[in-house]
Amino acid sequence: MAEAQNIPAGSTTAGSIAVAAESTVATRMSAPPSYDVADFPVPHGREEEWRFTPLERLRGLHDGSAVAQDGGVTVEVTAPEGVIVETVGRDDARVGKAGIPVDRVAAQAYSSFEKASVVSVPKETVVSEPIRIAVHGEGGVSYGHQIIELGAFAEAVVVIDHTGDGVLAANVDYLLGDGAKLTVVSVQDWDDKAVHVAQHNALVGRDASFKSIVVTFGGDLVRLQPRVQYAGTGGEAELFGLYFTDRGQHQEHRLFVDHNAAHCKSNAAYKGALQGTDAHAVWIGDVLIRASAEGTDTYEMNRNLVLTDGARVDSVPNLEIETGEIAGAGHASATGRFDDEQLFYLMARGIPETEARRLVVRGFFAELVQKIGLPDVEERLMASIEAELEASV
Predict the structure, then answer these.
(1) Per the UniProt record, which residue ranges are transmembrane (predicted)?
(2) pLDDT for 330-342, tens place per residue?
(3) What is the DSSP string of 62-121?
């Protein structure tokens, strides 16, 4: 098992199935954030932010050759009473407010979408039922922009469900007013050939709480960038994720938490399981604590379970601290093969090998799945895990 925790800058721990390292260089992009796609050079794969991504499988999203098509995706919003659902133009003041595109694909998505979908929860409104957003691919190329906005002291749970086939590049913005509480569950359950690249931007208000749960199972290539910044003191962000990377799949999660305000908290925990030849998972966890962010408390963790030979994991936690006046900061990364001792323990008590493997993997994911808090979603995800394991038997 490869482990990295509180390593001095520049140190590296490497194994045959994982790399865990810390470097302040990895938090820097090859071009500054911009809304204009022309400000980003076409990536060639040697840039820090693209070196793990197989560019040839992006289907033209990175070089401008992917042209949007009518009916590429359908978006259906199911919202309880009191929630406002609308479609707005590019000139709406909320568009782009949560964050600026940080790479060429995100800028391409921003430059190419025609209408943005906005879901708003008025101030002091507590939504009793989840808001559900179904994004279904119809096989074409699409660019999208989704905004979730909570007024001051509002509370809501949002489930964004991605299914079907196609090529999608999108920006998703979360705007949290002061004291608001938002939980977002983003499920990537695409068909085998789908490509999905998205930047998730959260702007967390004063004393607001943001919880993101990212679940990735399907797709040929999925590359997501959850990003958080704070609009005031006292904000909290929790970034949880789980992924099951199967044969030939590329799943990449690149987190960035910008502690730009004092006395804010963040906690990131992602877990993944891999199986099959050329299964490739990438996790990048970047945390920047700025000089003005005194009293910051942050921690990030990534765990990977490799079930078969032929799979590859790249796990890179990065922590950059510009002030010594913090409450706490740390990170950990570990990747290991399937625990034969656990398997032997269960089989010695009469449990068949196939069932024992299921129990170990279910236990590995259970802690994060339970954080979702929605029984129907939890049951569906555990069923998907079971199906993945069944395919490997």
Answers:
(1) none
(2) 988 887 776 666 6
(3) TTT-----TTSEEEEEE--TT-EEEEE-TT-TTTTSS----SHHHHHHHHH-S-EEEEEE
